[in-house]
Design a protein that fits this description.
Layout lengths: L1 H15 L3 H16 L12 H13 L11 H16 L2 H9 L10 H17 L12 H18 L6 E7 L4 E5 L3 E7 L1 H8 L9 E4 L1 H9 L4
Parallel strand pairs: 1-3
Antiparallel strand pairs: 1-2, 3-4
Helix pairs in contact: 1-2, 2-5, 2-6, 3-4, 3-5, 7-8
Length: 223
């Protein structure tokens, strides 16, 4: 399978590279090269060309303000993403992503980009018909768990009246709080991250707790 070959080909660098954000970036770019510009992703309506264009704009364009400012700025970013995906050769987009981040963001690469590139790597891996679960990510899960609380609190802030606890499969817990009705989200840090970043149907997690809280975390607005 293409994803299995991809994982074996880059496993050696994982053992040497402590910047997990950079490792996920390089694996994603390797996968872009393998599947090409028209491969489906978990980002609704986007192919790999759109995803590569998004990543280029995110790090290199003022239009990236559209990621955090709705309305006019978000519409400008969506239009720019479409245009860049259509007009720029895919290979150049991938090369631009691979060479990042820009020098002025290198110091915050791991903190800012770990979840971003892990999630988008999985967007491509899980976007097609073939999917093989990765078994080489124990260190990555540890790195994600270190940042889980800060990112998770941002992602669940719009949920209503839920008291959220994250339970790692190894038994470690993070209590996010947030409301009165308890719910426990259990899984590997990578799967919890995918769930909270909106890939709920494609993540391997277990939900237990108050039925209304379970329904809210399954269907409520994240991000």
């Amino acid at each position: 399978m293409v994803f299995m070959e991809h994982g074996l080909r880059t496993l050696w660098s994982h053992q040497m590279n402590k910047n997990h954000a950079q490792f996920e970036r390089q694996q994603l770019c390797d996968l872009f090269d393998l599947v090409g510009p028209d491969h489906p992703t978990l980002c609704e309506g986007w192919t790999t060309a759109h995803l590569a264009a998004h990543l280029v704009l995110r790090e290199n364009s003022i239009k990236a303000f559209g990621l955090v400012i709705p309305g006019y700025f978000a519409k400008r970013l969506a239009k720019a993403t479409q245009q860049l995906a259509q007009n720029q050769p895919f290979e150049k987009l991938v090369d631009k992503v691979r060479s990042g981040p820009p020098f002025y963001l290198k110091r915050v690469d791991e903190a800012m980009n770990l979840f971003e590139f892990f999630v988008h790597h999985e967007d491509v891996r899980r976007g097609g018909e073939e999917f093989t679960r990765r078994d080489d990510i124990d260190e990555l899960d540890d790195a994600l768990w270190e940042r889980q609380e800060r990112f998770s609190k941002l992602l669940v802030r719009r949920l209503k009246d839920v008291d959220i606890t994250l339970l790692r499969t190894s038994g470690e817990k993070i209590h996010l709080g947030g409301g009165g009705k308890p719910v426990v989200l259990e899984g590997a840090p990578s799967e919890i991250g995918l769930f909270l970043f909106g890939r709920r149907e494609h993540s391997d997690i277990k939900l237990t707790g108050d039925p209304e809280a379970v329904n809210e975390i399954k269907t409520g607005k994240l991000g």
